[in-house]
Amino acid sequence: MKLGLHIVETSWEGGPRQLGAKLAEIAQAAEEAGFDLISLADHVWQHPLMGGVEQSEIEAYTSLGFIAAHTRRVRLLSLATAAPYRRAGLLAKIVTTLDVLSGGRTMLGIGAADYPEEAEGLGLPFPSTTERFELLEETVQVCLEMWSGEKGSGRSFEGKHVRIGRALNLPQSLSRPHPPILIAGSGERRTLPLVASYADACNIRPSPEIPRQLELLRRLCADAGRDYDAIEKTAPFLFDLGPDGSKVDELLGRLRWLADMGIETVFGWVVGVDRIAPIEIMGREVIPAAAEMRPATRTPEVRRKTA
């Protein structure tokens, strides 16, 4: 099992004047500890679950570029890019640029968006649920056109919501055939079918429903002619080690639970990440143990539900 560091809040001691230095310190410590990825939430207001709109929130792609300059190995992504917030062609260029400047370490993490208050507050698009999922699919399609060949497919694209005149992309991404695409969400009617059609990775909620959802994804991949085993199965989680590392065994137990259900990579918010010590404990006691966990290669037999 691989572990990623997910940065979801930045209300750290020292405030904005020290934020850059602290973010660089965290990223470098995470890479040294052995984390496989660093991801950032794509919000412009802090989510109510993390303290609400009066708390610090930094823009994802600007911050990922900063992290790229302070690291050499970890994969980088937004978990997950809100499809309505950036025009599809521009998003392809943003992700391409990050991939080139990071030496080919970028993934496109993308979803349909789920925070209407921030969109309304800052004047960002937030159409209906149906339109957001249509936009998500068309955005991924445009990104694939932009990442085709040595300089993009050169074709125009006419979708219901997205239109581009020419898919031209220079410089082209270093990651080939394209930066891996992660589509986030556990939805069985919309999200998992999109994963089966387009994605290199999924990101589904940590719950006892995972085996059933992965079994559904397996069937959807078969219908789409995709290799289910080639899709990286990921989940978000909370990495709470306790103030002195006393909860390491508890965390390892939860990671085994996820591995037994078929999860290969876990994105975790490390409680107290700005103190750095929890990252170091992760590197000594959790990441090596997690690396020995072998995710279930096949989902167990489960009772099927109607999607």
Please, could you describe this protein's structure?
The chain has helices at 15-33, 60-69, 88-101, 116-122, 129-146, 191-198, 210-224, 248-260, 277-291; strands at 2-7, 37-40, 75-78, 81-82, 108-111, 157-158, 163-164, 181-184, 201-203, 232-239, 265-270. Helix 3 (88-101) links the parallel strand 4 (81-82) and strand 5. The chain contains 9 helices and 11 strands. The chain is 39% helix and 15% strand. The chain has a 9-stranded parallel sheet with strand order 3-2-1-11-10-9-8-5-4, with helices on one face. The protein has a two-stranded antiparallel sheet with strand order 6-7. It is α/β, with parallel strands linked by helices. The model is unreliable at 299-307 (pLDDT under 50).
Mean of pLDDT: 94
Low-confidence stretches: 299-307
Distance between the termini: 28 Å
Shape: globular
The secondary-structure element order is EHEHEEHEHHEEEHEHEHEH
SS element count, helices: 9
Major sheet: arrangement of strands:
3-2-1-11-10-9-8-5-4
Major sheet summary line: 9 strands, parallel
Structural class: alpha/beta
Q: Quaternary state, please?
A: single chain
Count of DSSP strands? 11
* Beta-strand fraction estimate: 5-15%
Can you give the helix content as a percent range? Answer: 25-40%
Radius of gyration using CA atoms only: 19 Å
Task: Provide key terms for this protein.
307 residues, 9 helices, alpha/beta, 39% helix, nine-stranded parallel sheet, 15% strand, two-stranded antiparallel ribbon, disordered C terminus, 11 strands
